[in-house]
Design brief:
By secondary structure, the protein is an all-beta fold. The chain has a single domain (18-271), classed as Porin (Beta Barrel). It contains one helix and 17 strands. It has one helix at residues 213-218, and strands at 18-27, 31-35, 43-64, 67-83, 96-101, 105-114, 118-126, 132-133, 138-139, 146-156, 160-171, 178-189, 193-204, 226-237, 242-256, 258-259, 263-271. The strands form two sheets. The chain has a twelve-stranded antiparallel barrel. It has a two-stranded antiparallel ribbon with strand order 8-9. Strand 14 (226-237) and strand 15 (242-256) form a beta hairpin. The chain starts with 17 loop residues before the first strand and ends with a strand.
């Protein structure tokens, strides 16, 4: 997993200003096992190698100086292919491939305080517009809608910034609710470069009974999927508001039903 490299934190865009980005999260290689515990000590072998890539459009726009709208439109490409050396499950699923929408997300972020410390809150929702072929263990997202509330707090100075985001998301269709935490600290390097380190946490409350053994066999969006990972980000921005950024995972902390492989997140954005 990597934290998407788009904007975040408690800061709001002024009225009629925006931020648009296209980004992709690409696997370094297909995975043949799932991480199932702390660090990379506990794994679950798979019957087939799995590919999981993400492509998304992100938009943030200032409706007023204190109210922003945020929208994400994600697409997924997932597939299962060659058999692995270890046959971990008795039920061998057929190989397959899916391309389609994942879970689009819309949020409204409202600013509460904009002084030495900035505070805002956001209402968020995601939708079940995914594709699934359960007989093959394939899915392009979570088969549920979600509704969430997040709090954002942070501060910035001339050369560095930091923020914390904490939220609760309620899921439908018997999926478990989750807690989400994002902690980021970054630095400005010269006139054009920025870098940051990020802690990204998704913690299941395990209060939903939904279970599908085929999705657990591929790691493609089963219930109770979790992660905690520290990532590194770097970005370069031109004088006219165009920019590129990248993010890679650095320190794996905790995982459940997450593919054991490296990923890289690449983005191209424009401020307007």
């Amino acid at each position: 997993m990597t934290l998407p490299a788009f904007a975040g934190g408690p800061w709001l865009l002024p009225k009629r200003q925006g931020f648009f980005q296209f980004q992709s999260i690409l696997p370094v290689y297909q995975y043949n096992s799932l991480l199932m515990g702390n660090f990379i000590n506990e794994t679950q072998a798979l019957n087939r190698k799995v590919f999981n890539a993400d492509y998304s459009f992100y938009l943030e726009y200032g409706i007023t100086d204190n109210l922003n709208v945020i929208a994400t439109l994600p697409f997924k490409h997932v597939s299962t292919g060659d058999l692995t050396d270890e046959q971990a499950f008795d039920d061998l699923l057929p190989a397959g491939e899916l391309l389609g929408l994942s879970n689009p997300r819309v949020a409204l972020k409202y600013g509460l305080l904009a002084k030495s410390i900035n505070i805002s809150v956001s209402l968020q929702t995601s939708w079940n517009t995914i594709s699934r072929e359960l007989e093959k263990g394939l899915a392009t997202g979570i088969a549920a809608n979600s509704f969430g509330l997040m709090a954002h707090i942070g501060r910035s100075k001339e050369k560095h910034y930091g923020f914390l985001e904490v939220g609760y998301h309620k899921y439908t269709n018997d999926f478990s609710d989750i807690l989400e935490v994002n902690l980021e600290h970054g630095w400005k390097l010269g006139q054009r470069w920025n870098m940051a380190f990020v802690l990204n946490v998704r913690q299941s409350l395990e209060n939903g009974p939904y279970r599908n053994l085929n999705l657990e066999q591929t790691g493609l969006y089963p219930n109770d999927q979790e992660w905690a990972v520290i990532s590194g980000k770097i970005a370069y921005e031109t004088a006219n508001g165009f920019g590129i950024n990248a993010s890679i995972p650095l320190v794996p902390i905790k995982f459940k039903h997450v593919g054991y492989n490296g990923t890289v997140c690449l983005g191209v954005y424009k401020k307007f």
